[in-house]
Amino acid sequence: MLKCPNCHNKTITNFTKLKVGPVHSIKCPNCKEDLTVPMITALYNFIHYFIVIFCSVRFNMSISILLLFCLIATLVHIFIYIKFIPLTLEEN
Ligand SMILES: [Zn+2]
């Protein structure tokens, strides 16, 4: 569970956080405040795929290796997104 930046209670599940984006907010179940993630996160959401595509072109990977790298990149992305991208209050 993750802490709400407003009421500081552990009310947000890891799965719920995955549904939050820079343009899609969620409400804290406790304080009903709108929560979002910083706009810079939109860039982060795609950068690991650019790295995989760059490596596939640079090192001439086979499609099976490329798909494996995409899977690993997605798992790493989910881990970093949950652990290191902060939830913030939505500015109105
Ligand atoms: Zn809250």
What does this structure look like?
- The chain is α+β, with helices and mostly antiparallel strands and 92 residues long.
- It has one domain (2-89).
- The chain has helices at 14-18, 41-58, 63-84, and strands at residues 2-3, 10-12, 26-27, 34-36, 88-89.
- A 3-stranded antiparallel sheet has the order 3-4-5, with no helix packed on it. It has a two-stranded antiparallel sheet with strand order 1-2.
- The longest helix is centred in the C-terminal third of the chain and has 22 residues, at 63-84.
- The radius of gyration is 16 Å and the shape is elongated.
- The mean pLDDT is 88.
- Zinc ion binds next to loops.
What labels would you give this structure?
92 residues; alpha+beta; 3-stranded antiparallel β-sheet; 3 helices; 5 strands; elongated; binds zinc ion
Topology, please?
Layout lengths: L1 E2 L6 E3 L1 H5 L7 E2 L6 E3 L4 H18 L4 H22 L3 E2 L3
Antiparallel strand pairs: 1-2, 3-4, 4-5
The chain binds zinc ion (ZN).
The site of zinc ion has 9 residues, from loops.
Short account of what is shown:
The chain contains three helices and five strands. By secondary structure, it is of the alpha+beta class. The chain has a three-stranded antiparallel sheet with strand order 3-4-5, with no helix packed on it.
| Residues in β-strands, percent | 5-15%
Structural class based on helices, strands and sheet pairing: alpha+beta
- The counted number of beta strands is 5
Low-confidence stretches: none
Percent of residues in helices comes to 40-55%
How many domain units?
1
Q: In angstroms, what is the radius of gyration?
A: 16 Å
Summarize model confidence as the mean pLDDT: 88
Helix-strand pattern:
EEHEEHHE
The neighbouring-strand order within the major sheet is 3-4-5
Oligomeric state of the chains present here: single chain
Number of helices: 3
